[in-house]
Amino acid sequence: MNTPDGSDPGALDGDDDGPDEALPLLYNVVYCSRASPQVDEAEVARIVATARRLNPQHDITGMLVFGSGIFFQWLEGPRDPVVALMDRLRQDPRHRDVVQLSESEEHRDRVFPAWDMEWVGAQDIHEVLADAMETAEDPAHAATLALLLEELKTGQLSALRPNR
Ligand SMILES: Cc1cc2nc3c(=O)[nH]c(=O)nc-3n(C[C@H](O)[C@H](O)[C@H](O)COP(=O)(O)O)c2cc1C
Q: What is the pLDDT of residues 81-135, one digit of tens each?
């Protein structure tokens, strides 16, 4: 980066002005879904174990939030494996009503570089996103996370909340 403080406004508009191209091309999908009735914490632990085994093989990182019968997942990695994972996920009977909240592909650093798949409690989601936003070096990143926080606040998740 030619701006050590990450304040290059050019990074916001996606213009090809050089430094971003040095970063890996990352595909990112964020979705939420409704857990199937039989899914309990033990099942979520199995899902997370599978993710931790398989995601490193495909260079995928991210986080999974589970609370009130709702999943919320952030996935980032090379495009083909992430698309393949989304295809598998859509077939998975452990959840339904998969709603994609955002999708992007750009040259950037990972938001969750150290997490092959972290399980975050629903009560912690705002904190996790706010933390990631504060430490984001890329202003475009911070803007995406701010949008996500806003989406959560304005109830996209609660719109999916099951009646039980
Ligand atoms: C909410 C949810 C999140 C999941 N996250 C991942 C994941 O990050 N990585 C992964 O490999 N599988 C994940 N899975 C499991 C996949 O749907 C699938 O079962 C797994 O990738 C193994 O694929 P296979 O059954 O076709 O071998 C998730 C499943 C659910 C219901």
A: 999 999 999 999 999 988 888 899 999 889 888 888 888 876 777 777 777 777 7
CATH topology for 31-160 is Alpha-Beta Plaits (3.30.70)
Q: Would you kindly state where each structural domain of the chain is located, as residue ranges?
A: 31-160
Per-position DSSP letters for 46-110, written without gaps between them? HHHHHHHHHGGGGT-EEEEEEETTEEEEEEEE-HHHHHHHHHHHHH-TTEEEEEEEEEEEEE---
Ligand 1 pocket list (CB less than 6 A): 47, 50-51, 54-55, 64, 71, 73, 85, 88-89, 92, 94-95, 117
Q: pTM of this prediction?
A: 0.74
The residue assigned the tokens 């409704």 is: 34
